[in-house]
Amino acid sequence: ASYGLQPYHVYVVTNASLLEKLKEKGYNQGQVTDASHFLIFASRTDLNDRIEHYLTLATQGDAQKREAMKDYEGMMKGFSQSLSPATEKAWADRQTYIALGFALAACAELEIDSCPMEGFDPPAYDQILDLPANIKSVVCLAIGYRKDGPKMPKVRFSKEDLFTWAQ
Predict the structure, then answer these.
(1) Under DSSP, is residue 159 helix (H, G, I), strand (E, B) or coil?
(2) What is the domain count for the chain?
(3) What is the CATH number of the domain that holds 130?
(4) 93 near 105, Cβ under 8 Å?
(5) Domain of 54, in residue numbers
(6) Which class for 39: exposed (0-12), middle (13-18), buried (19 or more C-beta within 10 A)?
(7) What is the pTM of this model?
(8) The Cα angle at residue 163 between residues 162 and 164, in degrees rounded to 5
(9) pLDDT under 70 in the chain at which residues?
(10) Is 129 part of any domain?
(11) Is residue 167 part of a domain?
(12) Which of 9, 12, 23, 110 has its C-alpha lying 20 to 30 A from 118's C-alpha?
């Protein structure tokens, strides 16, 4: 993630009662309760606190190390101060999608089936999970091993439809 701040949190939901509630607010998609693991990727909008936490971790509380990071700290804080709350949320959401991408790649590498999901009511998920005000649900990921093959064949657009070579 940008600056190493990882402005997201991943919730791994295993509680059957919670999963049923989430399924209802996820348009009754079966993956919510059928998957062996259901993850909710949420973005964080506490960037200034995150910067401070990052610096504490990076310097292990050492004042000399902190002083050596002053320029980097200034750059991060300058970036943070340049963002409106809406822009900060949009940036954190995009960073959260990067984390989702890595989770999808890890699942593929391990030959674990995965299904990213945006079809849900984020404010309802936030309420069900009792998320803090600075953490908001962005995207979900159902993972596990499917029992049966796909019910329908996969349809993929051609590479010509998806890619343009700028040469």
Answers:
(1) helix
(2) 1
(3) 3.40.109.10
(4) no
(5) 2-162
(6) buried
(7) 0.91
(8) 135
(9) none
(10) yes
(11) no
(12) 110
